[in-house]
């Protein structure tokens, strides 16, 4: 139970309990703490990642063509496809910073969900192509690559891992950035497989290693892409974000002194790492006079608790009589 130690003058609170009529507190929405420098920082991460991967793809295409490595050229073409996905995510990141308007009252945060949906499809499709090509090559000899080609693969792995590092921990709760990181990790894994399989084949002659490793990597990348795709679809339907435990949030609200019950609890992902919550809080009118909490303080305190849980957009409505008989009518 959260007990609020708050010294204030206790004014007389007279509430007229007319059937189904409620006193509602007008208040501003809580937007939590959001550092715009981080937004610029991650925008830089997208920009630098796109630049590095464009340069890497060009280098791999050149070396692959000069030394006749079809495997490396295929990896380069795969990277170019992923660069397109990164550009899409970058564009959605920029679009999400546009101010809300009268028509688009939530702004353009949802553009990151759309980008994640498309990127999830690209990741899953790309992984399926890798697995299909690997299966078709199981009975064929693997092309032995020269040292420059192996070095290009190693460079690709390093560049993609460094690109992942640029995003820091921002991808944990942001679907758009998570899709970008999965793109990069998938590219790093493919480059690593090309490098390791080449070394193993050169040392042992086991030509079946390359397609088997490619199937394993493709399966892993495909599963990651499927998770991004399904989570993007869930977000489009305003599902509770996977990292938010709604039962914990409900218990947290009920533990606050002055709140008797809650209903109409809604939690959804606005996009761009912004989680929204709306709820009706029914005041506990049975508290002793020395325990009664001022409405504005109760709202502010509850919003602060939710902000600590990573919920930045909070809209709370106080009620002094449960409205269980009130139903929302939908126009048919």
Automatic annotation (TrEMBL):
Pfam families, alphabetically? Cation_efflux, ZT_dimer
According to the lineage, what is the superkingdom? Eukaryota
User: Which membrane topology term applies here?
Assistant: Multi-pass membrane protein
Please provide, alphabetically and separated by semicolons, the GO molecular function terms listed in this UniProt record: zinc ion transmembrane transporter activity
InterPro entries attached to this UniProt entry: Cation_efflux (IPR002524), Cation_efflux_CTD (IPR027470), Cation_efflux_CTD_sf (IPR036837), Cation_efflux_TM (IPR058533), Cation_efflux_TMD_sf (IPR027469), CDF/SLC30A (IPR050681)
Q: Which UniProt keywords apply?
A: Ion transport, Membrane, Plastid, Transmembrane, Transmembrane helix, Transport, Zinc, Zinc transport
Tell me which residues make up the Cation efflux protein cytoplasmic domain.
241-319
Ranges where the record places region Disordered: 1-36
| Membrane-traversing stretches | 50-70, 116-135, 147-168, 180-202, 208-226
* Family as reported in the entry's similarity comment: Belongs to the cation diffusion facilitator (CDF) transporter (TC 2.A.4) family. SLC30A subfamily.
Native species: Paulinella micropora
Output this protein's name: Cation efflux family protein
Q: Which GO terms describe its cellular component?
A: plasma membrane
Q: Where in the cell is it found?
A: Membrane
The Cation efflux protein transmembrane domain sits at 51-235
């Amino acid at each position: 139970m959260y007990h609020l130690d708050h010294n204030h003058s206790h004014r007389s609170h007279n509430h007229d309990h007319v059937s189904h009529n409620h006193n509602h507190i007008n208040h501003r929405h809580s937007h939590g703490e959001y550092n715009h420098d981080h937004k610029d920082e991650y925008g830089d991460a997208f920009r630098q990642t796109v630049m590095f991967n464009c340069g890497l793809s060009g280098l791999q295409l050149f070396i692959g063509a000069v030394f006749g490595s079809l495997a490396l050229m295929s990896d380069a073409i795969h990277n170019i496809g992923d660069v397109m996905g990164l550009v899409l995510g970058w564009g959605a990141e920029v679009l999400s910073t546009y101010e809300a308007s009268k028509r688009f009252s939530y702004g353009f945060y949802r553009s990151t969900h759309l980008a994640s949906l498309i990127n999830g499809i690209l990741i899953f499709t790309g992984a399926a192509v890798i697995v299909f090509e690997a299966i078709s090559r199981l009975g064929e000899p693997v092309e032995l690559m020269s040292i420059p080609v192996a070095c290009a693969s190693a460079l690709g792995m390093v560049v993609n891992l460094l690109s992942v590092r640029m995003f820091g921990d921002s991808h944990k709760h942001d679907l758009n950035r998570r899709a970008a990181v999965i793109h990069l990790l998938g590219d790093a894994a493919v480059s690593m497989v090309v490098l390791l399989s080449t070394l193993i084949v050169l040392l042992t002659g086991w030509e079946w290693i390359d397609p088997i490793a490619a199937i394993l990597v493709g399966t892993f990348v495909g599963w990651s892409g499927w998770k991004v795709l399904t989570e993007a679809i869930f977000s489009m339907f305003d599902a509770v974000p996977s990292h938010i435990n709604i039962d914990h949030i409900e218990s947290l609200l009920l533990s606050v002194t002055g709140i008797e019950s809650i209903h109409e609890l809604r939690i959804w992902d606005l996009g761009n790492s912004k989680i929204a919550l709306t709820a009706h809080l029914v005041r506990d009118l049975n508290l002793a006079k020395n325990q009664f909490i001022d409405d504005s303080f109760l709202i502010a305190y509850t919003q602060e608790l939710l902000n600590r849980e990573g919920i930045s957009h909070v809209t709370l409505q106080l009620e002094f009589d449960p409205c269980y008989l009130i139903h929302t009518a939908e126009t048919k």
